[in-house]
Structures are given as C-alpha cells and as structure tokens.
Amino acid sequence: MKKKLDLSVVIFLLVVAILGTFTISYMFFSDSWIPTYVKNDEEIDKLTEAINLIQSHYIGDYNREDIIDGAIAGMVASLNDQWSFYLTAEEYDSYYQNLKNQYTGIGIVIKKEAGKEGIVISSVYKNSPAYKAGIMPESIIVGVDGVDIANMEFSEASQLMKEKIMQGGLELEIVDKYGVRETVALVPSVVQVDPISYRLIEDDIGLITIENFDARASLQFISAIESLIELGAKGFVFDVRNNPGGQLRELLTMLDYLLPEGTIFISKTKGEEPWVERSDSRNLNMPMTVLINSNSYSAAEYFAAALQEFDWATVIGEKTTGKGYAQKTIKLSDESAVHISISEYFTPKGKSLAGKGIIPDIEVEMDEERGTLLYYGKLDIIDDDQLQRAIKVLREKTE
Fold this sequence. Notes:
- It is a single chain.
- The chain is an alpha+beta fold.
- It has ten helices and 20 strands.
- The strands form four sheets. Strands 1, 4, 5, 6, 7, 8 and 9 form a seven-stranded antiparallel β-sheet that branches.
- It is globular and about 75 Å long.
C-alpha cells in the first residue's frame, strides 16, 4: 500500500495552514545561523523593478507583503527540492512550537465522513482545551459560533473554525455518539503532545510507538524501555509507521542507547569534511523488531536503517519514502524563515536513502482500509498483520 497522509484530516492544534506538511522534512534546526550573502545589484534591481511595476500598473487589490513572501517562496521552490520551503513569520512561529511537540489550538483532530452531516472529531489530545471540556472522539460538530455547518463543505467548515481559533476562541455545537447535543466554549492554549506511547502486549513484549523524533522523544523512549523491562518485557517492537521524522539529536540519543560501539550516522555538508557520529559500548542487547511503512520519513528511516545494518533488529513492513537530505531553518529579519537542504546524510554503512528508502527484512503489505485504521489509532492488534509478524519474529528469538 502506498497510502499517503489523508489530506481531508485537519489537526486543530495549529493556527496556521501548515498542518501535517512541514513535520516530515526536518532533522536539523537552528534560528541563529546566518550566512554571508554576495549581493548582485542587478538582480536586486530586477526584483525591485518588478515590485514597482506591480505597484504602478496593477489595477487590482494586492498586499505588498504577500508579494515579497511569494517572491521568496518562488526562489526556494525553483530549487526543485521537495524538502526546502519558505515560512512566513506566522508559519515559523507554529513550526517552532511543532519542534517542541507543542501546539497552540484546541486539541482535536477532525475529518469528514461520507453520509454523515457535520464534521467528525476523530481524536482528542490529552490535557487540551477540548479534553478538559469533556469532548469525546466520534462526536460530530454541527455548529460553530451559531453557524450551522451540518451541510457545509469540509474545507469551508475547517476554515471557519481556524479563523475563530485565531481570533481567540469559539463555541462548538456538538452531538456525541449517543445523540446528546451540547454547546461547548473553547479557548485555544498550548497543547503538549507526547511523542512516545507504550504498553506491554502478550505479557512479555514491549510495544513502543514513536510518533516523532522531536522534543522529549529520546527521554520518553528510554523511560518507556526501562518501564517495560520492569514489567517483564523480553523483547521489543518499535513502531515508526507514519512517523514524519524529527530532530537529529533525539534520533542519535536513541540509537546510542540501543546500539553497541560503532558508527551510527554520517553527514556531509557542502565544503566540509564528513561528520561521523558514533555510539559507545553500552547497549540494549534484547530481541527487537522495527515496523515501517511508506509514511516513515527522515529520522524514522535512519532509526530503522541503523538497527538493520547493525543486525540489531528485524525490520518489518513496507518500503519507506527515501529522504536523504538534512535541512536547516534560518530566520530572516522579519521573523519569517527559509527551511533549506544543507547537507546529505547516510546510514552507518555509508548508504544514502535518497529516493530509495529502506527495504524491510520481512515485507508485509497492509491494505488501505487497515492502513487508515492504523493512522487513526483504531487498528486492533489482532488485525495488524505487520505487528503480528513482529510478535512471531520475537517469539522465535526468545523461545
């Protein structure tokens, strides 16, 4: 299955329209690195000339700031690099929060379901305004600030909610799964998201789901492993399916904890010597498997690749995307930013995954219906063929 993220889903944790778009592309982050530019007066004059032409002759309405933003976005787009992009000041602020695994919003994930009026709430984040208000998954939003959205197009309804959130709050008219209707007032706030979840399955197998490799991921990952060992875990399944990647330091901390002494990551930046990261001799020597799919990106791929190349874990699932470039986010003078590819990275054995991805040791396809259930966290363990195969592999290793 080559299912990509469902674009009909909007995560109302953010307040700008960059949802589910930029989190897949970064492994490096900095807002202090400022390059030295060589100015070309003729090129600057050409840009100014075009802007002045619009100002002097264009008969319609326009916003000068939008023109500048569009010009910079066009420059970056002309690189033809899918991992590089321009961020407005507003987008940069939300992007920075995203790196910290926190978001400003009301904490619900919504979707449109065929045959149902209104907008369905598919999940609610813990400790969010929606969670504290008692809103439950599977409830249906039928009104926003007195406006009936039962038959409104999804894009129009989601845009209305986003505008209200940006204005500081909204009232949702909600019908829960039992048919009870109520109106709930919500004020957006900072929502913390846990990058790691875990549980013990079949009495002695630790299942750890890594949502991303952003802030607190490595700390929670190590804590989860230690907790599961105390509960009796004899082997682990690390699930990085639908994982969009994250920060390099979080990834390397995890790999150093798991792997024995050796090279765990290689990076090459233009004009510089290759940078090699090594792990020490301390390691976790227990049976392991890693679950991957076509929506495993960036750090998620290199996590799986390192464990695979060290012969430390069996990788199961579907071929990954294949991302091989690292990016830096560089702030401009007006608080906007350019997110641009600055280096190439490689697996411990020096292989680039760019355009290639990871081939699992054991390939197990998942159909679209089950893939959708997995994405929404609703796929039962017994119906998850990839997870069941991982359990079987661990049983063979531990018995």
